[in-house]
Amino acid sequence: MTSDVEPTPPTADDKLWAMLAHLSYFVVGILGPLVIWPVKKDTSTFVGDQAKEALNFQLAVTIVATVLMMTIVLIPLAMIVVLGGMVFSILAVVETNNGKLYRYPYTLRLVR
Description:
This protein is mainly alpha-helical and 112 residues long. The chain has 4 helices and no strands. The chain has one domain. Helices cover 67% and strands 0% of the residues.
């Protein structure tokens, strides 16, 4: 069942929290969205959605990079996966700054 009510556009505060969830990839990895998602999901659907999206993507990148690094031969491929994660995180920050919901490509939806 769909609602006829237009969703409210995200506030500047919502955009900031969503961007922090995506930017945490560079500083604290999965811990950023893992903290932001439960704290903000009830107060802002935009932040909750983007933090969950960032968490899913960062978990997927962490799992894939770890598995690749376990096979010493594939360490260069793991570096490419991590670099791709950085690029997609920057794209996510730009989109959330514009108030748009961002969906990462090539990710697992582990957290629903």
